[in-house]
Amino acid sequence: MKSGCCLELGIEEYGKIFALQKRLNQARREGTIPDTVIFLEHQPCFTVGRKGGFEHILMGRDYLAQQGIRIYESDRGGDVTYHGPGQLICYPILDLNRHGRDVHIYARKMEQIMIDTLASFGICAGRREKYPGVWVDAEKIGAQGIAVQSWVTMHGVSLNICPDLRHFSYIIPCGISTLGVTSMEKILGYPLPVEMVREEMRRRFSQAFGLVLEDIGLEKAEEMVQDDG
Q1: Active-site residue flag, 174
Q2: Among 5, 45, 90, 174, which one carries the catalytic annotation?
Q3: Second label for 158, Cα 20 to 30 Å away, from 8, 12, 14, 97?
Q4: The overall pTM is greater than 0.90
């Protein structure tokens, strides 16, 4: 087992964490920090990936602002997606030189982590041919959008525990109009604490990548990527 760091946060603004990810990614490429993973939720927002997808946002900015939903551009893979409270986010900052040096295997491993996490709560999920992410029948429950720079990862996956599913109706999620979106709460019929699911996903992540994760706080993470001078 290798050593790594784990940063568990609450509900955070997307732009702030995007900036932190970029700094962590650079530090990992420079070898000044170990493999690191972030678990958190985001304030309500839509993010648009490298494939674009502004045309898949169905509501105007004024209306979205009234609903407290912001829009961000991102350098992750994929189209437009939603993030909000009740959705567990996992952002790994991993050096794939230590984990197989294969982006496709890495992506499948992240999907499997979500599948195994869901199975531990009695939900049978799987992959859907030609569509990234994790699905329960014809509804997506876990999304994936990753980026890799010099074999170091950033961005990651999001698992719908108990988000406001109405917000997904304001977009065409991932540009797919023929399939739906679901959550653990919708399937089980009752809400689960995000903390409980996060603990299980963290355990599955640690096993999948052979990492012993040391807890760090946001202040420590910021210190790890402080610019010299």
Answers
A1: yes
A2: 174
A3: 97
A4: yes
